[in-house]
Design goal:
The complex is a heterodimer of chains A (84) and B (477).
Chain A: H1 5-20, H2 38-52, E1 54-55, H3 69-79, E2 81-82
Antiparallel strand pairs in A: 1-2
Chain B: H1 6-21, H2 24-40, H3 48-66, H4 71-102, H5 108-116, H6 123-138, H7 147-155, H8 168-171, H9 183-214, H10 225-256, H11 274-278, H12 283-301, H13 305-323, H14 327-350, H15 360-382, H16 386-397, H17 408-438, H18 445-464
């Protein structure tokens, strides 16, 4: 079973802060602002998978699906599968 | 009709005027007809080509939406068809010439036949938009519109020739043209349009005269060190002002009918690192490459170092090839790939050295190195032959000699433009400040007096420098 939205939100905030090495503000743009690049998005996906115990298949995703915390929550809810 | 020509400006005045006079329900059909007319003005021979791309995307799109189980196969088939068109119309001559050199071609007859067919304008742009559309459709990011709406998306005259490369999800919703007229559309559109005319005719075309002479393939002698560097820098400035001019005019024309196109430049010569350059130069192409090529490739390998470095080199070589069918373009792209690899290696090394991450000295060195590296890469991009590129690069780096062959005006103009680029962010900030101070709408001294004078001055400059009229560099790609 997938974690609930608030757990995903907290994990997304923590993972993004870890990547940019500072706390993320509410609604802060990550990719379109140039704060993180596409390779950092891949690291972000890895962190989310570990924190949430899910698998996120990146083939059908684009970096801007991870542009802010709310988009990350939507993306994880849309594509993530529980780790077997 | 090139954007910096009087016939195009007449077309634009007529098209924008009629657009706002027409009732809303006729505007889509009108813009489609105007776009067809504009594209046909480059030659009736290839009007069918963007329509064929729209047809392929539409038919494949219908298969994708009707049969979700075979989405991947359908999208792959559609992308292959669109890519085949690009290869046939843009790269056939280059491929046949390469095969000929390798001794595996069908002879000089097929080569001359292949190179005799004209190049369809904008094909690199609308085929890439078609590929993106199919991928987005497969990923459920866009819906399939009607065929006429899809034709309008691919033919939309402001950006069909040289971009910006738009995503369907940012342009399609705007093509319903539901917005009522607002005065700011005129101000915003004319600001960009007239600045674009000045950038093209006054700056890019003037530089082009000296750059053409400096890169002339006939001259065999090695230039002086000063001339080698100045002609390389001048070309870097020429291509920036030329492409930024086109982009400004495209954004301006779209803005006049209430449409917002994405930005393509953000002061690229202020880049702090090689990756930063690609966040500032041809932003919409960088975004396309990132979303549809680089990210999916590296997602498979989870960003592992060796596949990452190889993909950076390969993808950037393809970016070079996208610009033009020639080895100089491929070398330019590969050089940029190498810069990105070197910077990634440095970043991995830096992450193990705590003090370096905030070092101002390291940041300053990277900024200077980036600027030099970009300038070096422009040489093979512009040179007609590898021999010419080698002679300019040798003059720049090891065959030092004094002397100059150009007039003082060239050096003074180049230095003035370097200074302009240096203060461009500050200047833009000041202009935005004045605009914000004037308020969002309504009359102000800035709008009533300064703007019309600036527009008249800009148009005067455009007409005065019209004798050096030349095609936009990026329209050849």
């Amino acid at each position: 079973m997938l974690p609930d939205s608030s757990t995903i939100r907290a994990a997304a905030r923590a993972a993004a802060s870890e990547i940019v090495k500072r706390p993320i503000k509410e609604g802060q743009r990550l990719v379109t602002s140039g704060l993180i690049d596409s390779l950092s998005v891949l690291k972000l996906i890895g962190l989310l998978e570990r924190k949430l115990g899910v698998t996120i298949p990146p083939e059908t995703l684009q970096p801007e699906d991870f542009d802010d915390v709310e988009l990350i929550v939507e993306t994880v809810e849309r594509v993530a599968k529980p780790q077997s | 009709m090139t954007f910096n020509s009087v016939p195009y400006l007449c077309f634009l005045v007529l098209a924008v005027g009629l657009f706002w006079l027409l009732p809303g329900r006729y505007r889509r059909a009108f813009v489609l007809l105007a776009s067809l007319g504009f594209y046909a003005s480059w030659g009736l021979l290839f009007v069918w080509l963007p329509l064929l791309v729209a047809g392929i995307v539409y038919l494949v799109g219908r298969r994708i939406t009707a049969n979700p189980a075979r989405q991947k196969l359908s999208a792959g088939l559609g992308i292959s068809c669109v890519l085949a068109l690009l290869i046939v119309f843009k790269y056939r001559g280059f491929l046949l010439a390469t095969f000929h050199v390798l001794g595996i071609s069908g002879g000089t007859h097929s080569l001359s036949l292949a190179t005799s067919i004209a190049f369809p304008m904008g094909i690199s742009f609308y085929t890439f938009e078609g590929i993106a559309y199919l991928i987005d459709l497969r990923q459920g990011r866009v819906k399939l519109p009607s065929f006429p709406d899809l034709c309008l998306f691919f033919l939309f005259w402001p950006n069909i020739l040289s971009g910006p490369l738009v995503r369907a999800r940012e342009l399609m919703p705007q093509l319903s043209f539901r917005k009522p007229f607002e005065a700011r559309f005129c101000f915003e559109g004319l600001d960009r349009l007239i600045w674009g005319l000045v950038q093209k005719n006054v700056i890019a075309n003037m530089l082009g005269i000296w750059v053409d002479r400096g890169f002339a393939p006939g001259t065999t002698e090695i230039p002086s060190t000063l001339d080698g560097w100045s002609v390389a820098i001048a070309f870097g400035l020429q291509i920036y002002f030329d492409f930024a001019a086109y982009t400004n005019m495209a954004i301006g024309a779209a803005r006049l009918i209430g449409v917002t196109l994405p930005e393509n430049f953000r002061q690229p010569y202020h880049a702090a690192t090689p990756p930063d350059f690609w966040n500032r130069w041809h932003i919409t192409l960088s975004r396309w490459i990132r979303d549809y090529l680089f990210f999916p490739i590296n997602a498979k390998w989870a960003g592992a170092p060796l596949p990452l470095y190889l993909s950076l080199l390969g993808v950037m070589a393809l970016v070079g090839l996208w610009h033009g069918a020639g080895w100089g373009f491929i070398l330019w792209g590969t050089l940029h790939g190498a810069y990105l690899v070197v910077y990634r290696i440095y970043e991995s090394w830096r992450s193990t050295r705590a003090g370096l991450s905030d070092s101002r000295l390291a940041a300053g060195i990277w900024r200077a190195l980036t600027l030099v590296a970009i300038t070096v890469a422009w040489v093979p991009f512009r040179a007609a032959t590898m021999h010419k590129a080698a002679s300019i690069l040798s003059a720049m780096f090891y065959r030092f000699s004094s002397g100059r062959t150009n007039s003082s005006g060239f050096y003074a103009f180049t230095v003035a433009l370097i200074l302009f680029c240096a203060i461009e962010p500050w200047l833009m900030q000041k202009l935005t400040g004045i605009e914000d101070h004037a308020g969002a709408d309504g009359p102000s001294p800035f709008r009533i007096i300064v703007r019309p004078i600036a527009y008249a001055f800009g148009l005067l400059l455009f007409l005065l420098f019209d004798e050096h009229n030349a095609q936009f560099i990026y329209s050849q790609f």
